[in-house]
Amino acid sequence: MRIGVFCSGGDAPGMNACVRAVVRTGVAQGHEVVGIMNGYQGLLDQEFFEDRFAKVASAPVSTSQAPSTPPAMTARSVSDWSRHGGAFLGSSRSEEFRTPEGVAKAADILRAHGIDALIPIGGDGTFRGAVALGSQWEGRIVGCPGTIDNDLKQTDYTIGFSTAVSTAVDALDKIRDTAESHERMFLIEVMGRHSGYIAVHTALAGAAEVLCIPETDTNIPEIVELLHNLRSRKKRSVMMIVAEGDERGDAAAISEQLKAAGCAYSTRVVVLGHLQRGGSPTPEDRLLATQLGAWAVAAVEEGHTGVMCGRDCGARLLSPFEETFDGHRPIPQPLLQLIDVLAK
Ligand code: F6P
What we know:
The protein is α/β, with parallel strands linked by helices. The chain has 11 helices and 12 strands. It has helices at 15-28, 39-44, 100-112, 124-134, 161-182, 197-205, 220-232, 251-260, 283-301, 321-324, 333-343; strands spanning 2-7, 32-35, 55-56, 71-72, 117-122, 140-145, 184-190, 210-212, 238-243, 266-271, 307-312, 315-320. It has a 6-stranded mixed β-sheet, with helices on both faces. It has a 4-stranded parallel β-sheet with strand order 8-9-7-10, with helices on both faces. The protein is elongated. 6-O-phosphono-beta-D-fructofuranose is lined by residues 10, 123, 147-149, 191-193, 244, 277.
């Protein structure tokens, strides 16, 4: 089989480890693996990964849309990829691919290049694209969940989440030092788009006192009361984790609302932003990415298509793409209760 692999959407630490696993497993099983650059847009532009180890694929194709035979990656192409953040295959969010014409063009390109199966690594947007492509193309598509947001269902974790939380907790620890010295409260804004997962895990691991996430109501008077309480108990510093998707606005906006309501602490705002997307993946992310990549190749061989390959309590779980982005992935209630109990 000729298997295409690519990364799509926001990059996530561990994507490279996943590509490595796909390539090495695929090659070991006698397949040709083609790296598609820059996500769906790279597919439309027929950009393939090429390095000094690349082999020209054995079955040449010639159509007006196929300027060259895609080079096959080898085991050496992905040497030392696991420990690096970013996406060596590049990533993108493609406007052209969102159109019916773009999807049809992508299907034609895949046929012209003799690609039998695709392994996209990405989040909900990537899988919505995979559903659209699956309606126009007869090849197999098995996806791997790669997003720092951990907002997909049918997998315990997504690739990149562990590293993003680790980065955020590291930042929080550092900010706590200065907050303690100056008796301040910091509002630390973390990513997650519409999901509070990164915020919840960061708050718990970093022992933050207050959490604002889109999944719960952010009640300003209640927070102000808690802050007065903490102040009267001589708490020197307060860490408030704000998920970027909170319904009250971003960390700066919430800081203003707290000040207006009589906040007991002097406040500062830190937005962690894209820091959370970079850096060397944690061992957890490398392991998850490696397992998922190898499992995805096996799933393709077994004839599965239209599914995401997740990990559920240590085991492979294949789920139709639609189930992975259907509705909001809920935050476990006990985690939220724990944050409340520990803060008080
Ligand atoms: O989906 C990953 C993510 O990092 C979100 O947490 C964030 O809202 C978004 O991507 C940022 O996207 P961009 O890199 O396009 O600014």
